Amino acid sequence: MMMRRPEEECGIFGVFNHPEASNLTYLGLYALQHRGQESCGIVSSDGSNLHAHKSMGLVADVFGNPDIFKTLPGRSAIGHVRYSTTGSSVIKNVQPINVDYSRGSIAVAHNGNIVNAQIIKDELEAYGSIFQTTMDTEIIVHLLATSKANSLLDRLTDALNRIQGAYCLLFLTESRMVAARDPNGFRPLCLGRQGSAYVVASESCALDLIDAEFIREIEPGEVIVIDKNGLTSFFPLKKAEPTPCIFEFVYFARPDSHIFGKNVYQVRKEQGRQLAREHKVDADIVIPIPDSGVPAALGYAEESGIPFELGLIRNHYVGRTFIEPQQAIRHFGVKIKLNPVREVLKGKRVVVIDDSIVRGTTSRKIVKMIRNAGAAEVHVRISSPPTSYPCYYGIDTPNRKELISSSHSIDEIRRYITADSLGYLSEEGLMSTVGAENAGFCTACFTGGYPVKFPRLMDQQEPQMGLFEKETAEK
């Protein structure tokens, strides 16, 4: 069984007016691979037609044959890497979606989740629409096609004002590329330039790989149209108070990215420093759960004065599936990904830094693995508050009954994961790491305060009571 944590959502990337548009898009998707590892695709435009190549698998595998780029001609392209949030993980759901309709051809790539998707889909089907995928993204295409407006911008405005939730979108037609970000700005989206070409990406690390200049972040509620006349910015959507996702800083974004006005690495180090201020402990070494826990562990070590060590080594070549041997191996799913360094851990009082605890099962196995390697004490520190509520804005988190902190106290969780102590970063402490001026972040996964209300209750399952009592008996 693979280690279970909140899964990344999706990554989008687009280039307009570059002779190697599809190749640059491939590189951009490579840099965004951490945001989705199930499938990927590229759609290009040669000025007259759209061309697509997409498949299940990682970017390097799907586009490993250089001849593929001969089938993706043109000076403009958009691409997508996916981890499913709505819709199953099958080939028909691979993005970008590209369709022909009465006004020409259009492709769309989407990062996020539309919370009123089912209501709109039911309405469209009642009027005869036929859906070929199970993704909420296809709803946007249908709304675009059924709009009575004349211009592309007006049709997009009609469509986007109907949907609610989180979305960063890239559209590609024969002659233009359009980028849009939802009014709440849940997910990051940035604008760059490479020579005379414009580039749009989920994170700035994708711009760095192709030597593109970072211009700015695309603002919440902004729609950018890029065509032969250049770039034009519009704000045609219903206004809302921006609520970017705080968990992008905790876990999802790459540390070298610049999002929401901050460098991710610096924020994560500060999370570790603040964690050390809030939860001190007498210990010999600080170790991270690699790789996401590394910056926070460095910050914790610096603030506490406790030496930083790599006590767990990650196998970077683990795929999404593997065959477990018939003879049972304890904690196999964790051990195939992480291996303890006994010489570092033996006899030591260890502080283990991780970004979050979801179900608690993986944390439990890691703590036991560290103990089995000879650690004298294991103190777990988490660089975010307890995750007690699911995300409905583009993150694949378990439902509430599977989130251990939704029904158990911190001490109960500590006893379940068999740690000597457990400390979470406070919500106030987390917000202090991104600056007092950025108090508008979405913290729904910690507080249950959802910025965009649902048209119907999406999570009717209560927390799973008795999980701790049941599983602690399995010692």
From TrEMBL:
Q: Name one GO molecular function term.
A: amidophosphoribosyltransferase activity
Q: Tell me its EC number(s), please.
A: 2.4.2.14
Residues that bind Mg(2+): S292, D354, D355
Asked whether the UniProt record includes Amino-acid biosynthesis among its keywords, one would answer no
Looking up Pfam families in the UniProt record yields: GATase_7, Pribosyltran
Cofactor binding note from Swiss-Prot or TrEMBL: Binds 1 [4Fe-4S] cluster per subunit. Binds 1 Mg(2+) ion per subunit.
Q: What class of enzyme is it?
A: transferase
Q: Which reaction does it catalyse?
A: 5-phospho-beta-D-ribosylamine + L-glutamate + diphosphate = 5-phospho-alpha-D-ribose 1-diphosphate + L-glutamine + H2O
InterPro entries in the record, alphabetically?
GATase_2_dom, PRTase_dom, PurF, PurF_N
Q: Which UniProt keywords apply?
A: 4Fe-4S, Glutamine amidotransferase, Glycosyltransferase, Iron, Iron-sulfur, Magnesium, Metal-binding, Purine biosynthesis, Transferase
Q: Which residues bind [4Fe-4S] cluster?
A: C245, C391, C442, C445
Give the required cofactors. Answer: [4Fe-4S] cluster; Mg(2+)
Transferase among keywords? yes
Q: Which residues form the active site?
A: C10
Q: Pathway of this protein? A: Purine metabolism; IMP biosynthesis via de novo pathway; N(1)-(5-phospho-D-ribosyl)glycinamide from 5-phospho-alpha-D-ribose 1-diphosphate: step 1/2
Q: Which residues form the Glutamine amidotransferase type-2 domain?
A: 10-229
What job does the chain carry out?
A: Catalyzes the formation of phosphoribosylamine from phosphoribosylpyrophosphate (PRPP) and glutamine.
Query: Which family is this sequence assigned to?
Result: In the C-terminal section; belongs to the purine/pyrimidine phosphoribosyltransferase family.
Give the matching NCBIfam families.
purF
Would you tell me the protein name for this molecule?
A: Amidophosphoribosyltransferase
Q: Which organism is it from?
A: Geomonas subterranea
Per the record, the gene is purF
